[in-house]
Amino acid sequence: MSKVIKILGTGCPKCKSMTKVVTDVVSENNIDATVEKVEDIMEIMKFNIMTTPALAIDDVISIKGRVPSKDEVLDLLK
Question: Which residue range or ranges hold the Thioredoxin-like fold domain (predicted)?
């Protein structure tokens, strides 16, 4: 089943870095996933996080406030 990955952030440099890491991991490993960028602050607040960027996989927050490594993202998606 396809995973839904959401990157929560308002477009700051860290948010852009996280988006690149996640999209690279998905494409390099042929992972069946949809990557969505959530920039609407009201949408982000629904996840009850105070620090961005944040990574949600199937609506569960996995990482917040930092940019993960490719290996870390890959482990989360396996």
Answer: 5-78
